Amino acid sequence: MSAPVCLHNGTLVTGFTVMENCSVYIQDGKIEDVFSEKRFLQKHFDPSVRIFDVEGAFIVPGLIDTHIHGFAGFGTEDNSPEAIIEMSRTLAQFGVTAFNPTLYPSEPDTMIASIKAVVDAMGKESGARIMGLHLEGPFISPDRLGVQRPETLSSVHIELMERLWTASEGHIVNMTVAPEIKGMRELALYCIKKNIVLQAGHTNATYENMVEGMQAGILHSTHIFNAMSEMHHRNPGAAGAILIHPEMTCELIADGFHVHPDLIRLLVRDKPLDKIVLVTDSLKPTEQRTGNLIANGEEVIYHDGCFHRKKDDVIAGSALTMINGVKN
């Protein structure tokens, strides 16, 4: 058993409010109490309690990232358990306590190798805990690829899904899909039986496609406003459907570049906070200090707050950390 700890004089961020001049009392690794400055002064602590004055610094719960491809030069595309373990170690230094390593769509054998690498790393983490796998594809729209490679996409095949599931040993927990793709209802039924959360993303869905997807059980969405059909006054599209339907939850990349800050304000005004999931979608070179910057097999450069493909300057992905997303 570790000695009790009191973090004193902090700014506490709960997810719903910000409280200044607070103290947090931790015992055996669990938060036992939160109290004001007045209560702190009234307390008589046991001599074993270690008290740290954090001088107004933010105190936040451990952060959870459900959509992250890589960090600090290590990523899921390395197909290596050691790379995932290094992601775990370095993410903990940035306040992340749990994450879902996220796979790009790739050829089936490559995707299976990536899956097995993550599974092999589970239980060996030295920092952030691996909750499970997020598959971003391969059942997504060629019309909303972003920087995914078109040759890696697939029409819906339950046999392929079964191969991926078997390789994961039951550890696929969420999957990005395009609701408009033929065979999606059959896939949704399969995934619901396996307790896989389906997310609408990289989709060119009409509003009607999205409603059909919701009826099939697709009730979460991937990086809202990015790589999806835009809202139009005659066709609300995927983005509109997510805003209109209160049962839909959504990921948000809050770096100020993927989504305009004022649109984030609109989203937060429209959706309850417990329906918005802050993610980074960060690429392998995020916080990488040396060497060439490579993401999903492409050389990238960092400018204007995110990564761009070197060959054509197209936005390649996020360089966000969870703690900066919270600050934003």
Give the helices and strands, then pairings.
Layout: E1 5-13, E2 18-27, E3 30-36, H1 37-42, E4 50-53, E5 58-59, E6 63-68, E7 70-71, E8 74-75, H2 81-92, E9 96-103, H3 108-121, E10 129-130, E11 133-136, H4 158-168, E12 172-177, H5 184-193, E13 197-200, H6 207-216, E14 220-221, H7 237-244, E15 250-253, H8 261-270, E16 276-279, E17 294-295, E18 298-303, E19 306-309, E20 315-318, H9 322-327
Parallel strand pairs: 1-4, 1-5, 6-9, 9-10, 9-11, 11-12, 12-13, 13-14, 15-16
Antiparallel strand pairs: 1-2, 2-3, 7-8, 17-18, 18-19, 19-20
Shape: globular
Give the strand tally: 20
Which regions contain 5 or more consecutive residues with pLDDT less than 50?
none
CATH architecture of the largest domain: Alpha-Beta Barrel
Question: What would CATH call the homologous superfamily of the largest domain?
Answer: Metal-dependent hydrolases
Number of domains: 2
CATH level 1 name of the largest domain: Alpha Beta
SSE series = EEEHEEEEEHEHEEHEHEHEHEHEEEEEH
What name is given to the CATH topology of the largest domain? TIM Barrel
Strand content: 25-35%
The chain-level structural class is alpha/beta
Average pLDDT, rounded to a whole number, is 96
Rg over C-alpha atoms, rounded to the nearest angstrom = 21 Å
Number of helices: 9
Polypeptide structure, described:
This protein is an alpha/beta fold and 328 residues long. The chain has two domains: 5-59, Roll (Urease, subunit C, domain 1); 63-327, TIM Barrel. The chain has nine helices and 20 strands. Strands 6, 9, 10, 11, 12, 13 and 14 form a seven-stranded parallel sheet that branches. Strands 1, 2, 3, 4 and 5 form a five-stranded mixed sheet that branches. α5 links the parallel β12 and β13. α3 (108-121) packs parallel to α4 (158-168). The longest helix is centred in the middle third of the chain and has 14 residues, at 108-121. The radius of gyration is 21 Å and the shape is globular. It starts with a strand and ends with a helix. The mean pLDDT is 96.
